[in-house]
Specification:
elongated, mainly alpha, 124 residues
Length: 124
């Protein structure tokens, strides 16, 4: 009887651990538009899903337009203030060239920005 009880206790403990592990994902907060982009593009590119390369299921151009919009009306003004501050304080911040300033401005005003380039071009 003791062995049966220990076995049941172990099983209960494992079930509780599995529940707590699966529930940990429920606490993750993601912007709804980013969530949609991730799910849609994954389904579009994953051969195991029924939406694989289904052009009607995922409007990538619409997602790109939505992601490129500033998340709040004042974001462009705030980004300009930040960029002005960065440029005015070259003793604190490394001097940025025009493409770098444009990349920082884009990152400050959009929900998702991809900055790419070869090594040594100042992406950091």
């Amino acid at each position: 009887k003791v062995e049966e009880q220990e076995s049941r206790d172990d099983t209960t403990q494992k079930k509780n651990e599995n529940k707590s592990n699966s529930n940990s994902h429920n606490n993750i907060c993601v912007d709804e538009l980013l969530r949609e982009a991730i799910i849609s593009t994954h389904a579009f590119t994953d051969p195991s899903t029924p939406l694989f390369h289904d052009m009607d299921a995922c409007d990538l151009q619409c997602l790109a337009r939505l992601l490129a919009k500033p998340p709040m009306p004042s974001s462009i003004r705030l980004a300009n203030e930040v960029l002005t501050y960065v440029q005015a304080n070259s003793d604190i911040f490394k001097e940025l060239n025009e493409p770098q300033l444009a990349a920082v401005g884009a990152a400050l005003t959009r929900k998702l920005t991809l900055i790419q380039g070869p090594p040594g071009t100042g992406k950091t």
